[in-house]
């Protein structure tokens, strides 16, 4: 049983699901309209009131999660947390409230998870499809075929800022609606050729905003009843007739949806006009379902992060033999060091595989180039924190340790750094490593025992070990 928690800009949501052998069945859902994206001050910080509202919601979610026997929980935060300048201050309190680590994911990773969720509910394995998700703070466009993602892009435009910018204080009129649509179109026009209708056969809308718009159209008999431009225009005219968000009275539309529906509708009309979408199908799946499937894949050893690393190696022409040696040796040495947990085991292995990709930029300081590339790359499946940790490992593979000094306070992370440094050292010295002949401990000091033959047959080993003594002192 898995749980996915989505900390969106508009609302916080929770799904608990169980894989039944074929699909994931949702057994519990929860939603709080936190409106985090509307809780910023003039300096780009989350206000105290916004953070308190979020903490209260997360505490409630924690009480729900605690009642289920969960195998894994993943909490992801999207645009509002990406944008908040004080997210580092807020994050510890938020994690304490929910009881689990919170991952601030990139817009592109958000798009991939959304597509995974949508694709898991559609039967066709060959259909070329476009998926659109309009969130509180960002909008994602994803192009794919079956289960495979071909193109993903995140745009910094969502229902919250669009509503606040054009429908301030809830006022709705034709001029501001047209201005909101035109503004939104300008955000998508450059990317439009990639996503135009000739490149796909089905278009799907996955967000709560799109489903709410579709419900309003069908339940109130607007337009042709489908999610078409004709129907969207009919809904737009109806909202203009209401004149104010507080007066919106549509069958099936919750009161907390009415405030953001105008901004979401403007974005949806803009995307459909710009991309030439005639009709879109709303679908009850998206980010949370994608997170649940990602957890299921990880549990069955089909971790898509592994493929991301392999693809990155190929893109930058990493020497696969050297990479495998470094990764496998580092992992084995890490086990010798007896870490207290497996938090860094996979990250260390992947850091070993990627440790030389910086050579594609320059042989001088390649570890610095590699660290920068790993931290800033778009690596499918990885969180920002995971990429940062791998970046630190790769940066620390050689040279002084002052650059990662604070990280050494974590004993397991220090052990992973030591393991990678020794693995790289053995690789450069061209040693055929038999770990049955190695003794390695790291407590108040580092104890390393090697066969004498290694030093006599590979003279540089003695030099490298002396350098290591200096660095670790």
Describe, in plain words, how this protein is organized in 3D.
The longest helix is centred in the middle third of the chain and has 21 residues, at 255-275. The strands form 3 sheets. The chain has a 6-stranded mixed beta sheet, with helices on both faces. The two termini are 46 Å apart. By secondary structure, the chain is α/β, with parallel strands linked by helices. It is built from 19 helices and 13 strands.
Strand content: 15-25%
What oligomerization state is this entry in? single chain
* Poorly predicted spans: none
Number of strands: 13
State the secondary-structure class: alpha/beta
* SS summary, helix count: 19
| Cα end-to-end separation | 46 Å
Radius of gyration: 26 Å
Spatial order of the strands forming the largest sheet: 8-7-6-9-11-10
Major sheet characteristics: 6 strands, mixed
Average pLDDT number? 91
Principal-axis shape equals elongated
Level of helix content?
40-55%
List the helices and strands and how they pair.
Blueprint: E1 2-7, E2 12-19, E3 24-32, H1 48-65, E4 72-77, H2 79-83, H3 87-98, E5 102-104, H4 107-119, E6 128-134, E7 139-145, E8 148-155, H5 159-166, H6 174-188, H7 192-195, E9 202-205, H8 208-219, E10 227-228, H9 229-242, H10 255-275, E11 279-282, H11 287-299, H12 304-315, H13 320-336, H14 345-354, H15 366-376, H16 384-395, H17 411-428, E12 439-442, E13 446-449, H18 452-457, H19 460-472
Parallel strand pairs: 1-4, 4-5, 6-9, 9-11
Antiparallel strand pairs: 1-2, 2-3, 6-7, 7-8, 10-11, 12-13
Helix pairs in contact: 1-3, 4-11, 5-10, 6-10, 8-10, 9-10, 13-14, 13-17, 14-16, 14-17, 15-16
